[in-house]
């Protein structure tokens, strides 16, 4: 393919015609403005995105070096090189709407640690080195397992193109967990509402979480634009931002409807900052929500705990795991089974034992 020809006279005064070097490459030079004898060699070709910047600097007598991406700066074939390649790929997926920005943010933090610990290793490091890396973070076991998960995801993507094996596959987890987020009790909900009056953003926030069971990543975007009417019923619908979640459509319950209309300031989203603008990120809303919880004397409480409490309440009211799947946006029955398993077993046992009542013993 022929290289693009530049009109040096019209667009770039002082840019000399390209010179073909012995290597076959073209060299571009620029006369310094005010000094025709002095020439600056450009370090990037015309098709480079930084060409205009380099050209104008050369006219002032300054030679710029091309900006290198992290991938270009890394040793080809190293762990750092592969990590940066993966992040570049993930950035493109986020831009195309095929991956979550939250995933990208988390992976950046995890791979920063990987690069600090073993960035110079060969990219196909043996499994025992992955285990060694995991064990360096034993004091923060959840982080250690997140690193292994991120490495495994990276290798799965790279195997068809760069790697032949996934050294993170089969590496065991060291975090056993303690049940995750603490589910809110009825007393917790009452205590919070007694502290934060109706019409406040704090009250609206709790109401939104309780009557939608949405994740905090969705709470920052929900607003009147998500409302719809079906069969004469006002509803609320959205596509959860978490990858793999199913679309959610639920009735807009009266308490939530009243709370959204009672807010003193109305905007594009239900939840607004003190400046009347949507929250910039889920983290920003999370910081405010934790403060509102502390003001109500509730420590170690989170929005996800409300989501879990809602699932338990739905199960206790007789909802099946498939009904909970619909409300929570789950696509796997196993996820919702966590909340219904104990309740359904008791109901089945109670129904089964009732059959014995009429036995002639």
Structural notes for this entry:
With 361 residues, this protein is mainly alpha-helical. It has three domains: 1-67, no CATH class; 72-158, no CATH class; 186-349, Intergrase catalytic core (hpI Integrase, Chain A). The protein is built from 14 helices and seven strands. It has helices spanning 51-59, 70-73, 79-95, 101-118, 127-135, 141-158, 186-195, 201-212, 216-219, 254-262, 282-295, 303-316, 321-328, 333-354; strands at residues 19-20, 26-27, 29-32, 35-41, 227-230, 233-238, 248-251. The strands form three sheets. A three-stranded antiparallel β-sheet has the order 5-6-7. It has a two-stranded antiparallel ribbon with strand order 1-2. A hairpin with a 5-residue loop joins strand 1 (19-20) and strand 2 (26-27). The model is unreliable at 1-10 and 321-346 (pLDDT under 50). It comes from Maritalea myrionectae. Residues 179-353 form the Tyr recombinase domain. Keywords: DNA integration, DNA recombination.
């Amino acid at each position: 393919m022929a290289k693009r020809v530049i009109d040096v006279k019209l667009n770039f005064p002082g840019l000399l015609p390209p010179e073909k070097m012995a290597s076959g490459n073209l060299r571009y030079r620029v006369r310094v403005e005010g000094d025709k004898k002095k020439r600056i060699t450009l370090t990037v070709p015309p098709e480079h995105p930084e060409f205009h910047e380099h050209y104008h600097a050369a006219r002032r007598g300054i030679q710029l070096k091309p900006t290198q991406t992290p991938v270009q700066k890394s040793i080809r074939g190293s762990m750092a090189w592969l990590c940066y390649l993966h992040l570049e790929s993930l950035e493109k997926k986020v831009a195309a709407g095929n991956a979550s920005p939250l995933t990208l943010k988390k992976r950046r933090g995890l791979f920063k640690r990987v690069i600090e610990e073993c960035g110079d290793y060969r990219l196909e490091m043996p499994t025992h080195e992955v285990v060694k890396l995991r064990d360096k973070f034993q004091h923060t076991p959840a982080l250690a397992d997140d690193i292994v998960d991120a490495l495994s995801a990276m290798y799965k993507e790279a195997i068809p193109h760069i790697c032949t094996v996934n050294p993170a596959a089969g590496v065991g987890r060291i975090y056993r967990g303690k049940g995750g987020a603490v589910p809110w009790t009825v007393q917790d909900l009452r205590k919070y509402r007694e502290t934060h009056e109706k019409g406040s953003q704090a009250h609206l926030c709790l109401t939104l979480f309780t009557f939608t069971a949405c994740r905090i990543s969705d709470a920052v975007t929900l607003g009147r634009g998500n409302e719809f009417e079906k069969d004469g019923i006002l509803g609320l619908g959205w596509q959860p931002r978490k990858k793999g979640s199913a679309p959610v459509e639920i009735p807009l319950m009266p308490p939530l409807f009243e709370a959204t209309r009672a807010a003193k300031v109305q905007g594009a989203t239900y939840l607004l900052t003190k400046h009347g603008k949507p929250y910039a990120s889920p983290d920003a809303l999370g910081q405010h929500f934790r403060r509102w919880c502390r003001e109500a004397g509730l420590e170690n409480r989170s929005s996800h705990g409300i989501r879990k409490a809602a699932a338990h309440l739905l199960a206790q009211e007789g909802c099946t795991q498939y009904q909970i799947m619909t409300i929570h946006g789950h696509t796997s029955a196993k996820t919702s089974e966590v909340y219904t398993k104990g309740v359904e077993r008791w109901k089945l046992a109670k129904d089964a034992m009732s059959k014995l009542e009429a036995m002639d013993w």
